[in-house]
Amino acid sequence: MPGLSSTVTAGLAVLSAAAAVLTGQGGQKAAPRRDAGIAVQHFDAVKPDQQPWGTLRWMMNSQIDPGAGQTFGVAEIKAGQRNPRHLHPNCEELLYVISGSCEHIVGTAKVTLKPGDLIRIPRGVPHQAIVLGNEPLRCVVSYDSPDRQMVTP
Questions:
Q1: What does the alpha-carbon distance between residue 13 and residue 10 come to, in Å, rounded to a whole number?
Q2: Is residue 153 part of a domain?
Q3: Beta sheet of 109-113, edge-to-edge order
Q4: Mean per-residue pLDDT pooled into runs of 10, the chain (153 residues)
Q5: At 35, which CATH number?
Q6: Is residue 150, in this structure, part of any structural domain at all?
Q7: Domain assignment of residue 148, yes or no
Q8: pLDDT for 92
Q9: What is the pLDDT of residue 153?
Q10: Which residue range is the domain that position 94 belongs to?
Q11: Three-state SS string across 11-70, please?
Q12: Does any domain span residue 110?
């Protein structure tokens, strides 16, 4: 396909930049910027939501930008930890692994995820990530709703 190589290269450049920010090798500190109908967030400027198992940084949702149509975040689950089993009644989730690995339980299925893997979790299906090894799991998460809801069954 014409242009496929450049599309893949551009996509890899975006993921590489995200990985650099996650590993502390990039990023700028700046206040969120909104103009011309866009919103710009800088990873280092977003306060992490601390959890007992790790952190979430919400980069975009309807609270950050009322015009947002999605929720997007960066998660880190500490080595040897797991997030609580939960579901999202109003949205599906995409999870892309940047570094580390986990066993992801989705419904009754178990899948091992490593860097470069992406999983789609359907709306309303209970799931949980359990970190494998001595390295934290770093991933990006995306939801098809600007107001992601979470329920622990």
A1: 5
A2: no
A3: 109-113, 101-106, 127-132
A4: 45 47 44 70 93 97 93 98 98 98 98 98 98 98 98 93
A5: 2.60.120.10
A6: no
A7: no
A8: 98
A9: 87
A10: 4-143
A11: HHHHHHHHHHHHCCCCCCCCCCEEECCEEECCHHHCCCEEECCEEEEEEECCCCCCCCCC
A12: yes
